[in-house]
Amino acid sequence: MKPLPRFAALLGLLFLFTHSAILRADEGAAPIQTVANIAYKTGDKLTEYESQRCKLDLYLPSGGKNFATLVWFHGGALKGGAKDGGETPKIARALAADGIAVASVNYRLSPKATYPAYLEDSAAAVAWVRAHIAEHGGDAERVFISGHSAGGWLTLMLAMDARWLKPHGLTPDSFAGYIPLSGQTMTHYTVREERGITKETIVADEAAPVFYCRKDTPPMLVLAGDHDMAARSEENEYLVAVLKGAGNTRVTFRQIPDRTHGSIAGNIVKPGDPVRRAILDFIAAPSPAAGR
Length: 292
Prior knowledge:
It is built from 9 helices and 8 strands. The chain is α/β, with parallel strands linked by helices.
């Protein structure tokens, strides 16, 4: 057998050195701490389904203190999805690696539960995070609310309609900011279906974020993809236009190029993703209201 040429041998040594260095870096990296299946609603009056679904997972940045926290509501048309399903755990870990804690939330789903059960659950979840995140090293004054698709609608409803947080002694302004991704701004089509209204019949009633347009909302960064589902990006842009027409200076709309309804959330896991960068910049701003 002929000996390897010198350059091939050098390449082999370089590979071994690099591979060894990567392994050492991985071994030395502090892991993200996870705390799974925390019940954010308790008590004897809960239904079995409520006890099963009303839980959240915490993803905590390693070695940090007084970090910001993002409460994340998964998508799934209010009919499916899970806090630990699909890309959600990867998204949570990516943001935790950037120094932001993530609380990934399950909530009751239609048709087993109907409006407003999933909103009541969402309010209870963010109230739990605000009350308890300091016990895990976070800053209770820097809790942000976000979610994708149905989770974006939940985010918007908590921001716009004060009814849901009031039973917990909170208001929409109790939270540092809201970041809905591709959420419906009209009455959610699943809510319409529950009422016997077709998806194609557009309604904007008390179950629609746009119904509550006003000047004094909390800070919001509203995101949608340029290749989002039909009318979704336009719906979000319309909400922000109406808010600005009311004199609101605390809301911004960004349409993300080359993103579909799925990839606007799914691509957050990629370093340098514009949605990930926008979320981090919004959270890191000295005052979320400034310039918005």
